[in-house]
Design brief:
Layout (H helix, E strand, L loop, with lengths): L2 H8 L9 E5 L5 E5 L5 H6 L2 E6 L3 H7 L5 E5 L3 E5 L2
Antiparallel strand pairs: 1-2, 1-5, 2-3, 3-4
Length: about 80
């Protein structure tokens, strides 16, 4: 997917809030939240996204620790949907 497609979906009340099912090309889908970090604009321009997996969402919401997120390339994402 392109960064424009992903941003349009994420900006619909999903950024830092609601978990999303993210399907990938060549790997299993994950459920997680897209997070906004100080480098969000720079990463978005390069089609990279920080996603906190569902196992770490509660810890992230308490601590806001960016290290709980993993970075994914938007070109590997095939579909975004509400879980």
């Amino acid at each position: 997917m392109t960064n424009v497609q992903i941003e349009k979906f994420v900006q619909q009340n999903y950024l830092d809030k609601t978990p999303v099912k993210v399907s990938f090309r060549g790997r299993k889908p994950i459920v997680g939240i897209f997070i906004s970090t100080p480098d969000y604009s720079e990463l978005k321009a390069k089609n990279f996204w920080r996603i906190v997996g569902e196992l770490n969402i509660e810890s992230y919401r308490k601590s806001r620790d960016m290290n709980l997120a993993r970075m994914f390339s938007g070109s590997e994402i095939t579909k975004l949907s509400a879980p």
